[in-house]
Specification:
Elements (H helix, E strand, L loop, with lengths): L5 E4 L3 H10 L3 E4 L10 H10 L8 E10 L2 E3 L5 H11 L3 E11 L4 E12 L4 H10 L19 E5 L2 H5 L3 H11 L8
Parallel strand pairs: 1-2, 1-3
Antiparallel strand pairs: 3-4, 3-5, 5-6, 6-7
Amino acid sequence: MSAPPLLLASTSPQRRAILEQLGLPFDLVAPTYEESGDDPLEHAAGKARSVDGGDRPVLGVDTIVRCDGRMLGKPGHVGEAEEMLEVLSGREHEVVSGLCLRTAAWEELRSETTRVWFRPLTARDIAWYIEAREWEGRAGAYAIQGRGAALVERIEGDYLNVVGLPAALLVRILAERFAGLYGLG
């Protein structure tokens, strides 16, 4: 029996790329959920619940960056992106993702946290990164899989969580819920 493709309730190219990297079958569906607030678990559940999966598992994910209790979402303009990078400069922060995997019969709602340390950034470093425009649409105003790697000193935890999908967590859930079906467990 072949594994039913997951329904990814997202339009994120990073999440799509991670599922392709893992070799998991999936289809994309744009969620109809509208985010408000900064709770990644709530947003992941809202995205997954906004999609009718029928008999297929639906995956919703949301990611935020937290630094000293401050939530850093997606910057709306260059000034916000610069401010976020200044906040992260030379400091540790957490990338927190909420993940919701659901079927008509059950729902798993879990979170994953990865710790990231930025090197101290100069005004020139920030200007160089802002010019690349990778900050657009990125929680915390950076993309570790691109030029943003030059901002990072080290990480502790799931690298792919920082990219946009907590892959280790997803694999664990699939192995638990669908032992062998997706080639896992």
